[in-house]
């Protein structure tokens, strides 16, 4: 059996960086992309064995979906196994892929999609709102750093194999917990700064004018934004509610709140 | 003002790079922030572009394709919203109001692209049966085209007829509706935050959420998101410190469970 060299692993890394989701589809999700990503290694390993090649292609075209940065660990470990035993034990490979993709998706999406994005892009957006384009560099710098992490992940997966990758994932759980704390602090902080709505409703009683929004802010600053967020959070917990439907609910709420003056004839 | 064909072509190239960025590295061009900024830059009004892009970005902070779920195409929404704001000369708010419904409408083209790729997946299955790896390889590359077309077609059509679209909007859509959209733009960021709250373990760590909120609500004028993020980072660091300490303590006593006391009891039983 042929061995993989540094060049093959790096080729797989570059392909994974760009093309894992080009062929994304509802049936197998990243399945088509996975086969394309590992192809440089498959070519090396099964070039002279048509039966094994066909078997490998079919295995890797199967259903796969996980967080993209975390996929590097799985693919690296997959290459490590196939280099040693080829397609002899295909169930071990399928087991590795399907067993790890779920838990890794959870960890990866929390860190790389939810927390990282919320922090980097909220800072960049604030800089942009004040007319500065320098903030646009932040996501690019962050993205390059993530690409480096993904490179490391490929090699960790390849060198350390299934068992250690699983242990590594356990360590990442502590990190995910820490990242969740960071994320939730920022999420709390985002409410007063990002939801800029204030209730524009003044109620005249003789000579006294009651500004409802002022009254609410005396109870708690940014009470109106907090209430809207909690309402949205509550709605999202309902069955049949998803983010797209929530947008329609909030647009309807906006139509109502934006026309309070017309409605009350003030 | 009609949009010059050159500008439309450049924006089509940009939106193609944007969608490829969205499904791969996520460096930045995929984000509504870049969409607004780059459209503004190309159409000669960077400031409007930055405001539309940044506002939309803040609106959609928590909206991500968790597990491959389809979400509204706010990148294209941002590009079109900025373009319409500049064509109409009515300022950023006008663009923000339009970007949200446009993004919602274009959810459908995203779904179409993902469905179209099922076809290439089946071709790949066929070639895999034959062991023809070169053709399997090509199938994934073909998958790029549905993605790109699903973004280029709406952008090109929307911009070629840009002037007419804007005049239709201005003459047929009532003021109260645009006012409503503007207010909706102010409260929509609540959605992104609510999604993040659903996604992160808020029931376990609600105390940190309260901490973040109070810091900004009472001290917002002297404080920033970056500051809040640093406080959060410090608290996360403390957590990791204690978690690893606890772990090593557990390892030292030879138990792996968190609850040491119960485990000690177990050990006694085993010894007996």
TrEMBL record, chain A:
<dbReference type="GO" id="GO:0009401">
    <property type="term" value="P:phosphoenolpyruvate-dependent sugar phosphotransferase system"/>
</dbReference>
<keyword id="KW-1133">Transmembrane helix</keyword>
<dbReference type="GO" id="GO:0005886">
    <property type="term" value="C:plasma membrane"/>
</dbReference>
<dbReference type="InterPro" id="IPR050303">
    <property type="entry name" value="GatZ_KbaZ_carbometab"/>
</dbReference>
<protein>
    <submittedName>
        <fullName>Phosphotransferase system, mannose fructose N-acetylgalactosamine-specific component IID</fullName>
    </submittedName>
</protein>
<feature type="transmembrane region" description="Helical">
    <location>
        <begin position="243"/>
        <end position="260"/>
    </location>
</feature>
<dbReference type="Pfam" id="PF03613">
    <property type="entry name" value="EIID-AGA"/>
</dbReference>
<feature type="transmembrane region" description="Helical">
    <location>
        <begin position="219"/>
        <end position="236"/>
    </location>
</feature>
<feature type="transmembrane region" description="Helical">
    <location>
        <begin position="181"/>
        <end position="199"/>
    </location>
</feature>
<dbReference type="InterPro" id="IPR004704">
    <property type="entry name" value="PTS_IID_man"/>
</dbReference>
<feature type="transmembrane region" description="Helical">
    <location>
        <begin position="126"/>
        <end position="149"/>
    </location>
</feature>
<keyword id="KW-0472">Membrane</keyword>
<keyword id="KW-0812">Transmembrane</keyword>
<feature type="transmembrane region" description="Helical">
    <location>
        <begin position="100"/>
        <end position="120"/>
    </location>
</feature>
From TrEMBL, chain B:
<feature type="transmembrane region" description="Helical">
    <location>
        <begin position="222"/>
        <end position="242"/>
    </location>
</feature>
<keyword id="KW-0812">Transmembrane</keyword>
<keyword id="KW-0472">Membrane</keyword>
<dbReference type="GO" id="GO:0005886">
    <property type="term" value="C:plasma membrane"/>
</dbReference>
<keyword id="KW-0762">Sugar transport</keyword>
<dbReference type="GO" id="GO:0009401">
    <property type="term" value="P:phosphoenolpyruvate-dependent sugar phosphotransferase system"/>
</dbReference>
<dbReference type="InterPro" id="IPR004700">
    <property type="entry name" value="PTS_IIC_man"/>
</dbReference>
<feature type="transmembrane region" description="Helical">
    <location>
        <begin position="152"/>
        <end position="173"/>
    </location>
</feature>
<protein>
    <submittedName>
        <fullName>Phosphotransferase system, mannose fructose N-acetylgalactosamine-specific</fullName>
    </submittedName>
</protein>
<dbReference type="InterPro" id="IPR050303">
    <property type="entry name" value="GatZ_KbaZ_carbometab"/>
</dbReference>
<keyword id="KW-0598">Phosphotransferase system</keyword>
<feature type="transmembrane region" description="Helical">
    <location>
        <begin position="49"/>
        <end position="71"/>
    </location>
</feature>
<keyword id="KW-1003">Cell membrane</keyword>
<feature type="transmembrane region" description="Helical">
    <location>
        <begin position="185"/>
        <end position="202"/>
    </location>
</feature>
<dbReference type="Pfam" id="PF03609">
    <property type="entry name" value="EII-Sor"/>
</dbReference>
<keyword id="KW-0813">Transport</keyword>
<keyword id="KW-1133">Transmembrane helix</keyword>
<feature type="transmembrane region" description="Helical">
    <location>
        <begin position="6"/>
        <end position="28"/>
    </location>
</feature>
